[in-house]
């Protein structure tokens, strides 16, 4: 049995699958939908064949990503589309180094010092999330592409589930000022590249080594009488992690910009929000002060919301600015070039 003809017609004559593919087409600009929509839907229907009533998750994600890329092309901001894999790579390796550090300095420390009931050999359930992100790094090195993204999605879901699960079973967990930036970076890892370079695949083991090396001086300080034993000791470290991550990505972005590649600068802009969330606790205490050595929950929520809104506004402003610049360039070019082929007309020709 053949699929219905994807040509335009009454919506009631279309199959449920075709109607759902057409809804996904809304991710594309309107003009692109009119010009190419029938071809795209027909191709997907031919590839799927009869039977299914819903697009596969792969097809849905493929259409949404392609639509977003086409919209960014219209804004002259294709560098932003190319920045997602770069930002994902930086986010994952930051999480790996961060996870190793917290495992060694907090989770494996003596829980009697902090008065917590241990969770097996660890202080809190947070160890499960940190081990999960180390597993994501291993997957990104050995099985890059779809499997790495599946592992990143699993690590993200596990991190999100920590607060409700900890409350349900009555076990300690890391505080929200640790989990929220972790979740933000986890969201970024969902865009891990399909075909990473050899350098990209070698970064997770290097991140493990970096996190281990950084923990050494803290262990020495603990032995010297300055214990670093709980998550409440980590706000300054979190702010340093966010700042270091942003600085490194910005340096890479500036280097790429010298080669006329703005994807690195877009990646730095994408990671500005997670970097800010790493310092949300410090920001809260600087603006609203603290009570009992920690900021009040409402003050922390306000600071987190401010960071999220600021990051979104900066990204929107950058895209809008790039779109305005792109329109201006096209308007200057249109009178002197053919809009179809891009060639300059012969101004010496006479009618």
Automatic annotation (TrEMBL):
Domain of life: Bacteria
Listed name of the protein: GlsB/YeaQ/YmgE family stress response membrane protein
Segments passing through the bilayer: 78-104, 124-143, 150-170, 176-194, 237-258, 265-288, 300-320
Keywords: Membrane, Transmembrane, Transmembrane helix
